[in-house]
Amino acid sequence: MTEVSATEIRRRGIPDATVARLPDYLRALTSMSGRGVVSTSSEALAAATGVGSAMVRKDLSFLGSHGVRGVGYDVTHLSVEIARALGLTRDWPVLIVGMGNLGRALAAYGGFAAGGFQLVALMDRDPAVVGQPVAGLVVSAMTALPALAAAPDTLGVITTPAHAAQEVCDALIAAGVTSILNFAAVTLNVPAGVDVRKVDVATELQILAFHKQQRSRAPQLAVAP
What we know:
The structure is a single chain. By secondary structure, the chain is α/β, with parallel strands linked by helices. It folds into two domains: 6-85, Arc Repressor Mutant, subunit A (Orthogonal Bundle), CATH 1.10.10; 92-203, NAD(P)-binding Rossmann-like Domain (Rossmann fold). It has ten helices and nine strands. The strands form three sheets. Strands 4-3-7-8-9 form a five-stranded parallel sheet, with helices on both faces. It has a two-stranded antiparallel sheet with strand order 1-2. It has a two-stranded antiparallel sheet with strand order 5-6. A hairpin with a 2-residue loop joins strand 5 (133-134) and strand 6. The longest helix has 19 residues, at 16-34. Residues 87-187 form the CoA-binding domain. Homodimer.
């Protein structure tokens, strides 16, 4: 198994669909490592992530990891390769804008540090909220955004109501933030060079409702008397 530099990974152009599955592989590998598993197979990773084994092998081939016939993949080595591909060999600063119920819940989420992210700031424009302690940080006013987002690699999270999200997005971009996770139920307009990931709980529930409805409408198999 050969190591691949971040530059090489970018040059190869890993498909978005593969990138979306890499965190699942890393989570499965971390669990395996915690149980003392030294090596694994594409079949085991497939079972742990719900992905076909052929897809697992194809995804990992983008990292230069092809496994060893009869042995499989070294769990530690593969974990490092995936972490490197995802940029998780360092901590990424994260700031959350919007200290409503969702924002506070995310601020209290204990998985940031374990995932390679450092929560550095919480922000809100409501004077009644600014200055309050939340999850060990003090909520800052939006006027502090340029200073708090000074690091060029800061990731922004929007947890405001939909009507305020675009304004917050514009402010983040103006402050130099080019990677944004949006929880607001609205599509954001951003210039080229800005990456936005949308988390829409309502949409996901609607998709689940669709599949549930389809299953309930499926013809029932006749039961022999």
